Amino acid sequence: MELNENEALKPPDASGRFGDFGGRFVPETLMPACLELEKAFNEAWADPSFRKQLDDLLADYAGRPSPLTDCPNLSELLGCRILLKREDLNHTGSHKINNVLGQALLAQRMGKTRLVAETGAGQHGVATATAAALLGMECCVYMGEVDVERQKLNVFRMRLLGAEVRTALSGSRTLKDAINEAMRDWVATVEDSHYCLGSVMGPHPYPWMVRTFHEVLGSEARSQCQERLGTTPDVVVACVGGGSNAIGIFSGFADSPADLVGVEPAGGAAVGRGVPGVVHGSRSFLMQDEFGQVLEAESISAGLDYPGVGPEHSFLAASGRARYESVTDTEVVEAFQLLSRLEGIIPALEPAHALAWVSRERASLAGKTVLINLSGRGDKDVDQILELLEKEGRA
Amino acid sequence: MSGAVEEALRARREAGGKSLVIYMTGALDDDFETTVLAVAAAGADVIEIGIPFSDPVMDGPVIQEANEKALKGGATPANILSRLERLDVGVPLAVMTYYNIAAHMGLERFAQSLAKAGVSGCILPDMPLEETADWAAAADAAGVETILLAAPTGDDERLTAVCERSRGFIYGVGLLGVTGVRSELASSATEIARRLKNLTDLPVLIGVGIGTPEQAVEAAAAGDGVVVGTAVVERMLSPEGPEGVAALVKDFREALNA
Q1: Please, what are the domains in chain B?
Q2: Cβ partners under 8 Å of residue A380, min gap 6
Q3: Annotated catalytic residue: which of A71, A140, A196, A225?
Q4: According to the model, what pLDDT value does residue A1 have?
């Protein structure tokens, strides 16, 4: 399939499909809620008062716009000009707040009183708990047992913010299972609860709605690049688990000549190692066995430890508008330390994937301008990295 | 043209009785075949065989546990179907699994392999009405009845459309929630049964949250029968063996007959 630049990143069709990907594969119980959400989102997005409410919160509460930072030391080492979109400087420490404030306002507008969310690294859970605290809503966050263990600080943060954190004990006990539990909760509580999904995945309208809430970071980056560079960057790079930060930044450059690169963890490379399949509400690339059982991902990064990917990424991969690469945990840990040491910025393990790819591919990127979406900050990962480096005798 | 599932359930209704559909996880253990035959002999009108999936979002902890156990024991869609093909059960069979299992094999191939194994119906609980077309075309061509779920959250217009596309029976979801035994029957169970009975002539069976013979009788009163799953699977996971499962099914059958 050949796509021209203007066809990429267009809204899905009426069935929620981007090309062959997407749809609404949810239990019948949830279908009316998906239809209601779609309608409510479209109405809210067309309503200037809703947009103003959200824009005001993004500016005055979340701290937008986030800066664009040049990295002179890293650029010198790698031989290309590196720019970072600083989503790590948002309130709650990642890009997740953009989507969560949008969904929480929407849920309130729909008369829902409770937010249900899944979380991997805890960033989306913390953001959801934050929005719930701000708007006076109840909040319940599902988190896999493995992640509860490796992201203790974020678990405590969520509780501090007044959220209930429930541990998912089934399957791989990571993000995939937290999503299963959140969906089971929503099946039972759909009348008063809104499922505040944290990525560009799930049934329609979630992939489109979440992407729309993250467009703000892409459009900011586009105008910041224009001002700084007088043009668009040569390459735009972002990490991809479900893929919300990547879609956000790609959306700002889809109609530019920039190469779009998504970086997956080697142990959770849905696009790289998957085939099309259906789980968690949509058809997309999915790591699965020969019988269609979903495989368990394995990544150092709890936020990317997911065997699937948002359907729009599958579409961008199939159409060739974006390409998807993968990096190993070892490369990620190196990149995590590299940015900390050279630029005084401790990245989250998730965007460290994007940095790791740029570092590895420095020869082919020589002389180019590379924009990386620094989707989150690394405070939450410091414990885990300390433990790892101590084990290796390097701390 | 109606299939074997619908015929069996209509026959039960015409005889003035209430139908009992029993769900059991496929290839849970070595007793699989014995258990299927025992459940049929104990009075199930239709047996629903679960083909386990790694991420069963419509199922509660008991069926999740059975899914995991079956998968660890090497259950695959193909081996469950070939084990069923060798069985003469005497009552119609349906399969319940998730969309990806069918999609991964290929919808047409999956539908044909059900027919070849002697399976008459199929339930895919993560396939709402809007996503039904591709599967239903494959199932219709293979002569497999596509049984759809109707939920309490749907308005009458939606329930009517779901009933029109459903074959075999209409599976009324008894409560807002996933499969599992509850201490009391939800009022939504009789409510959805009543609503569906007003909208369709198809047999109306209520499932999800029906764990005891008493609850089955109460739910069946407003409809044409019930689907019982978790209580049966819980018994299958216990040390009581196929006889224990059969005894439970017999309790349900006798309560519905009384």
Answers
A1: 4-147+225-257 (3.20.20.70)
A2: A93, A121, A122, A123, A151, A153, A154, A348
A3: A71
A4: 40
CA-to-CA distance for A120 and A246, rounded, in angstroms?
A: 17
CB contact A80 to B (< 8 Å): no
Cα–Cα distance measured from residue A305 to residue A152, given in angstroms and rounded to the nearest whole number = 17
**Half-sphere exposure of residue B152: CA atoms within 13 angstroms, side-chain side:** 23
**ipTM for this model:** 0.96
Q: For each of the domains in chain A, give its residue range(s) and CATH number, in order of start.
A: 17-57+96-206 (3.40.50.1100), 64-94+216-391 (3.40.50.1100)
Residues 6+ apart with CB under 8 A from A36: A110
Query: Are the C-beta atoms of residues A82 and A362 closer than 8 Å to each other?
Result: no
Task: Supply the pTM of this predicted model.
Answer: 0.96
Q: Per residue in A297-324, pLDDT tens?
A: 999 998 898 999 999 999 999 999 999 9
* C-alpha span between A239 and A264 (Å, rounded): 6
Q: Does B125 touch chain A (CB under 8 A)?
A: yes
Q: Of the candidates A23, A188, A191, which has its C-beta nearest B131's C-beta?
A: A23
Looking at the annotation, which residues of B are catalytic? 48, 59
What is the side-by-side order of every strand in the sheet holding A281-286?
A17-18, A21-25, A281-286, A275-279
The answer, for A30 touching chain B at a CB cutoff of 8 Å, is: yes
B64 vs A: CB within 8 A: yes
Residues of chain A with Cβ-Cβ distance to B53 below 8 Å are: 292-293
Helix axes A206-229, A311-319, angle to 10 degrees: 60
Q: Cα dihedral angle (B239, B243, B248, B254), rounded to 10 degrees?
A: -170
- Paired strand residues for B149: B171
Q: How many CB atoms lie under 10 A from the CB of residue B250?
A: 17
Which residues touch B232 (CB under 8 Å, ≥6 apart)?
A: B22, B23, B24, B39, B245, B248, B249
**Cα separation, A280 vs A283, whole angstroms:** 9
Q: Which of B15, B88, B24 lies closest to B227 in space, CA to CA?
A: B24
Three-state DSSP state, B2: coil
pLDDT digits (tens, 9 = 90+) for B155-185: 999 999 999 999 999 999 999 999 999 999 9
Given a contact cutoff of 8 angstroms between Cβ atoms, the answer to whether B208 and B173 are in contact is: yes
